[in-house]
Specification:
GO terms for molecular function: oxidoreductase activity. The chain is of the alpha/beta class. It has eleven helices and eight strands. It has an eight-stranded parallel beta barrel. About 45% of the residues are buried.
Amino acid sequence: MKLMIGTAQFGRQYGIANKSGIVTAHEAFNIIKMAIDNGINWVDTAHDYGNSEKLIGILSKRLDTKLNIVTKAFLGHLNPQPGVIIPSIKNTLDDLGVDEVYGLLIHNPADLMGDQADAVFNVLNEVVHFGMARKIGVSVSTPEQAEIITENYPLDIVQVPCNLFDQRFIQSGTIDRLASYGLEIQVRSIFLQGLFFMELENLSEHFNEVKPLLVKLHKVAEDNGVSVRKLALEYVKAIDNVERIIVGVDSSKQFKELIDDYNAPFDVSIDFKQFAVNDERFVNPGNWGCGGWCDEV
């Protein structure tokens, strides 16, 4: 199973469809335990996700399990020198309760595209050298960012947004090119922060242009006897070269339904290209004007 638990909701209000707020510690425990019980031991987090890293550290200790953790950090605002950043990464590891994470990703791709990019990359290599991370990488928002950064720096992991509406990384051939370089591809935002599940009357005028497509999406799902969540999962499951599929949930009940959908057979033929929007006004949550809580992660 390629699923990886996204934990933005563990530490902050996240998602346009999130009505329950920050996930409680008790519910986070239930989610992680359910993941482990289903053979899922991959977790995605970030220093920017509030207390998420600390909570993961506490829960993994309580469950007495070793998780494969990928965390993300903003480094460009710091003096990108080992003496400054290494202690910051050490604090992250202490919060997570581990000596090493599976992956350390740059959260803001601009950190690997600006004047400090070389220094930031050198620090990433130091992190690996000191045994604090097995792999290094970047989380990007556009194919152009991925292409520029991976041409300049030999990374291990690239995390990209990909979903029924946002097919830019597929249609541009970027995922295939990244994989040809030997990069591990992880996809996020597969439900577009819950936009696919929203009632149309609860959407702002910003989404007027895509409301007809949302109606179409729900009709296609209904006509084929499957959930919208199932369609969203099957779209990313079918993409070649994707190693991990990051999913965020608000409750263990929701996670159970997601796992059931993931494992359920899918024997219908659907042209997923009909749902492509690829307009950054709609596929990049950072452009939704929601005060920061829906920024790309």
